[in-house]
Write a structure and sequence with these properties.
With 216 residues, this protein is an alpha+beta fold. Helix content is 31%, strand content 33%. The longest helix is centred in the N-terminal third of the chain and has 15 residues, at 29-43.
Length: 216
């Protein structure tokens, strides 16, 4: 059963318990994002770096899934995937994406929209080398997003890949790499009582960012 909306008394108790400071109009969205991410890493019980990635296919039908953010700097937000997966194929055809971070324990979210480019081979190699060996082997074994007859077929592929590489180094598969989303807009959203939420938007501009607020 879906819970009902909070009552006025429940909202009042929220205000009394913890009234957050105002959301300041920071000049650098990456600094603000990093401060929120660090809080999430300290408080979220699982995968504080999880984000939804939305893409569209060749017909314009939207698609969305959860992935893990693996790097972020002034160039954008980076994640890795099988390039032959649904998202890999969709981004090859339409290199634009939207991201959503939702930190339930903090009552905050961040939305990102922008253009997508592949990371360099050197970046992909460096990150792949840090992955646990079983996940490296899994990257070779899985035809991500393709039909799987049964679990046994996957386990067989994993065993075959394991035998192939033995105890040696597992190289990065040619079909596995990363994407960088360069933001055109970044919106910071914070829950406030009575659905009067705070929304601060950064838009990329020549030489920096412009900011404005939105009605909740």
């Amino acid at each position: 059963m879906i819970p009902p909306s909070p009552s006025e008394d429940e909202y009042v108790r929220q205000v009394a318990a913890a009234e957050p400071p105002p959301l300041l109009a920071e000049t650098d969205p990456y600094q603000l994002f990093d401060s929120w991410l660090q809080e999430a890493l300290a408080k979220e019980p699982n995968d504080a770096n999880a984000m939804a990635v939305a893409t569209v296919d060749e017909t314009g039908m939207p698609d969305v899934r959860m992935v893990l953010l693996k790097d972020v700097d002034a160039r954008g937000f980076v994640f890795y995937t099988n390039l032959e997966s649904a998202k890999g194929r969709q981004l090859a055809g339409q290199p634009k994406a939207a991201l959503l971070f939702h930190w339930k324990s903090l009552r905050r979210q961040v939305r990102v929209r922008g253009t997508v480019t592949p990371v360099s081979a050197e970046e992909a190699d460096a990150y792949f080398a840090t992955r646990a060996r079983p996940t490296q082997i899994g990257a070779w074994a899985s035809d991500q997003s393709r039909p799987l007859p049964d679990r046994l077929a996957l386990e067989k592929r994993i065993a075959e890949a394991g035998l192939r590489f033995g105890l040696g180094k597992v190289p990065r598969p040619p079909h596995w790499s990363g994407f960088r989303v360069a933001p055109e807009t970044i919106e910071f959203w914070r829950d406030r009582p009575f659905r009067l939420h705070e929304r601060l938007v950064f838009e990329a501009a020549e030489g920096g960012w412009t900011t404005h607020r939105l009605f909740p």
